[in-house]
Design goal:
The chain is an alpha/beta fold. It is built from 8 helices and 7 strands; from the N terminus they run αααββααβαβαβαββ. It has one domain: Rossmann fold (3-Layer(aba) Sandwich), CATH 3.40.50.
Length: 236
Amino acid sequence: MSALLLLLLTAPASAEDDGPGPSTSETALKWLRDSAEYHAIATQTYRQATAALKTNKKGKGPWAAVLDVDETVLDNSVYQLERHTYDLPYESVSWHAWCERRQATPVPGVEDFLTEVRKQGGRVVFLTNRKAVVTEATRDNLADHGLYQDGDLLCTRTDTSDKAPRREQVRTGEGPCSFDEPTRAAVYLGDSWGDFPADGEETGARLDGVGSRYFVLPNPLYGEWQFLRGITRPLP
């Protein structure tokens, strides 16, 4: 219930934004940065995703973990804190400047998860709506924390914020967001509903994959939130 209240305190970002949204509540920011609960939930999510690898990696051909970047792999709350402190809204110039600083830190649990993916023979895809202009800075920031390694894919935003075309490239092995051979996505991790395949994009309903192949990180700060009316099957 507390997480839902936090969500209601913040304004969602436009679908065309490539970074954090226009406003951040002090309560939401403090919860994400300082609470034991946020740290525990993020860690729990990554541990659940790790446990799912054993089953989901089974099958023919190479497999991968597909992860969103912002608030899934990298914590950008310092950027949000700086904007909030000076009562400044989100805008792309300051966001790109933040990305160039390469100072985002790992979300709790992600380091151990990526280590296990690689240990089990999986590939890693970072699929982000950061724009191509900050590709090098993003790669450097990830690599500085040991999160990005040679052979990983970093797929930045194209001409649309929709990630479905890039997910398809991973699956088919065709296009810039691919390993040049078909690769199964064993798990997806993200903080937004759009980080996961839509109904029928792979198989079945999106909601059916939650907790088995799709693992959601909490983000009360910003997002293109899709409320319950946008889910094809009502929650119990």
